[in-house]
Amino acid sequence: VQLVESGGGLVQAGGSLRLSCTLSGFIFDEYAVSWFRQAPGKGRQGVACISSIDGSTRYEDSVQGRFTISRDNGKGTLYLQMSSLKPEDTAVYFCNTDPPSRIWGQGTQVTVSS
Question: Region 84-94: what's the mean pLDDT?
Fold first, then answer.
């Protein structure tokens, strides 16, 4: 299993970013997949999840209405469109299956300045 996240960066509050993640080494379209994040000094938390069956989604309360998760099964790629970013969204963002496997990628850093 290999997980490669990209698309992070530095953005001002109110701005937008689109994260991408390629997942390989398993049958992508058979798994629910999620974005997680880990802020400095905090544990890793789930942010958004998308199912394998019907593409249904769920979001952590603090990102509901601002973030949109999507997937391209043909490309084995997961996306996270983030809008109206806030300083508290600053974190390293990871993708994984849901529930997560033991293997994690390097993540991609998102920094939101006030």
Answer: 98
